[in-house]
Design a protein that fits this description.
- This protein is of the alpha/beta class.
- The protein folds into two domains: 2-64 and 209-457, Aminopeptidase (3-Layer(aba) Sandwich), CATH 3.40.630.10; 70-206, Glucose Oxidase, domain 1 (3-Layer(bba) Sandwich), CATH 3.50.30.
- 35% of the residues lie in helices and 25% in strands.
- It contains 15 helices and 14 strands.
- Strands 1, 2, 3, 4, 5, 6, 7, 8, 9, 10, 11, 12, 13 and 14 form a 14-stranded mixed β-sheet that branches.
- Strand 12, helix 10 (325-334) and strand 13 form a beta-alpha-beta unit.
- The longest helix is centred in the middle third of the chain and has 19 residues, at 244-262.
- The radius of gyration is 22 Å and the shape is globular.
Amino acid sequence: MPEKKMLADIEQNSEAWENLLVLADDIGVRVAGGEGEIRARDFLLKTFARYGLDDVHLESFRHRAWQPKREELLVTSEDDRPLACRSSALSPSTPQEGLEGEVVFLERCDEEELAARADEVRGRIVAAPYYPVARQLKTPLAARYGASALLEYRSFSGQLQPARTCAFQQLGGLPVASISLEDAEYLKRLQQRRGPVRLRLRLESHIESKESWNVVGQLTGTERPHEILVTGGHYDSWHVGPGATDNASGVVAVVEAARALAGVRQHLKRSVRFVAFGVEESGLVGSWAYVHQHQDELDDTILMINNDVGGRPSRLAIAGAEDLVPSMEEIARRVQIKDLQQPFAVDCGVPSWGSDHFPFYAEGVPTLGVGGEAVNPDARLYGHTRADTADKVYPRGLSEAAAVNAQVLLAVANADERPARRRTQQELERSFVGTNLQEALALVEMWPPQEVMARYFNAD
């Protein structure tokens, strides 16, 4: 049986942990537009070729690459006491002399809270926690209500400043930076003891058009080669750290699934394509580029599996395609992971907009992610910081995620019928009208998909 052969190969010969160490330890920071990104690209290209995939190649695209030049925050009401801060990607620079103002703390920085406190926010520096509202949503909302700048602070301790983009492939609406939870609590104590606290923020960054790449290889189907399954994960990280869990763990699971499936390639009726996506962190640019460059194949792309952030795999998370549930439940009942104590679950809900499945979802392709549970409960605290290092990764989970990918891909590649149909843009829009997704897509300007691709790939 090909399933048993494939699983035994993963159990006995997995290279996932070693591949993760190459990305996270040997290469380290893989920020889009940097030297680490190129080294990771070349490593993944050579690894796909070494595993015997067909048509291994790079697919290039342009993007707005960002690099911080100056990140400075002073408490001017406390004799210019410095605090550590990190500029957000695609944040506009402040004036050369800095931007000064009083800080006001919010609990969420959502529409409701900003409207209720509009008079306090206008003309001031807003500070808000990392969770529960994404920075890409807080930024346009804070700008709408007249804030002069936004400081996002970490929700967990450890003197870490989180990295994120404040806008997707366009300049944010106001200067944005991050500070640690500890420094935010210090500023709150100052307010309680001494009244208004004034800050001066100085940010300077460089933004230029650069080339990046998706790394692609496939196993060509024996009977229906034109019908394609895609599995992928992004290989870029933020500038602050090596991105071991986010997302070296996800991309090496894809690479290991490719290695294992290559050993049973003669049993694949449909083609399986493996994609290491570039430039996810600042706007899902690589996955948008993929759907932009493969428009003529999307009718025949019958499933996309996204791998973003590791852990122990526990479920198949379907992005809104209810008709995909029955076939995935049947496959999930057959999924085997050594020592797994509970049946492998399937859930379906309103899709998120912040990972590489979304451009496929926006084009109507049936899409799911491999959901996971943290074995190390502290691992989730370190994403998007300098502490996202290899010691936070559950090594066995890399092979387990690869095994899940490989089993689902093998089953769907050989199924008599497609597991679900491609949906139209009108159907998708009707499905999320009135949901939080509709509001979020408007704020981050990620709908309709043809306008996103025009903004990303037709601009100078």
